[in-house]
Amino acid sequence: MFITLAIITSFLLFITLLPMAYSQHYLVRGCDFIRLQVFYIASFIACVAGYFAFNNATDFLYIVAGAVLIMFLQGKWIYPYTWLAKKRSAKCLKTHCAQCKDYVGKCTYVEP
Q1: pLDDT tens-digit profile of 8-36?
Q2: Does the CA dihedral 17-11-48-79 come out positive or negative?
Q3: CA angle 101, 109, 76 (to 5 degrees)
Q4: Cys-Cys link to 70, which of 32, 42, 52, 100 (CB 3.0-4.6 A)?
Q5: pLDDT tens string 37-74
Q6: With contact defined as beta carbons under 8 Å apart, do 63 and 49 qualify?
């Protein structure tokens, strides 16, 4: 079970880190579209490995740490598209950022 979870976690980590490479190849860019699925699979693996680590199998803590790392990296990309993130308006991207010369990606203007 440990080897299976280690292989799956390694593959998911590879899929997570691959889009960070500067490449426009379709296999690399294709990993951008499966972020939510990778996040869910990593959370399932973290739960399963956490169960085994709780039962005195400390080797599984490495898998839990890897799965949490994957969830953090994927969650960083997924978060702006969830209902938890602040809503941004089109006005923010066009007029507000041009007026205050704020970086568009860091704009905090929220339409009233």
Answers
A1: 999 999 999 988 888 888 788 888 888 88
A2: positive
A3: 95
A4: 42
A5: 999 999 999 999 999 888 888 889 999 999 999 999 99
A6: yes
